[in-house]
Amino acid sequence: MTGRTAKIPARCECGSAATRRVNQFILRDALWWDSEFSCGTCGIYLCEHSGPEPAPDDVREALLAAHGPARLRLVGPVPRLVPALKVLREVFSAASLSRARELAAELSRDGLVGTLPEMEFLRDRLLLRGVHADIDP
What are the residue boundaries of the structural domains of the chain, listed by start? Predict the structure, then answer.
C-alpha cells in the first residue's frame, strides 16, 4: 500500500503562516484521506478530517502536484467487460452504466489517471474481479 502526503501553505487564525498536511491512503479496504492543520507560532494542531471517502479537489490537486499522476491501464484484452464495469460503478459510485463504459474504454486505451493511492485502490478492486491492470507511476 502506498500512501501519499502533501503540504499546503495555510494561514492560522493567529495571523501566522501555518501548514495543512493532507494524506491519501488505503485502509481497511477503503480509500481514505485526512487533513491536519498546524501552526508553529501559536502551537495549534487540528485534525480537520479523516475518513473513507473521495478526497476533495484541493487535496487531490495538492497530491498530484507533489507526486505527479499515476496511470492505470488494463493488461491485455479483457474477455468480458462486465466485471470491470461493476468495479467502475462501485468505485465511482455515481457512475451511470454509460459513464462506466466510457471509463472502461479509457482504461483499455490510454488508461485512467489519478493519485497513486486512487489507482492502487482501483487496481486492487479490478484484480478481485479477475481483471488485470498495471500502474505507470
Answer: 4-67, 70-136
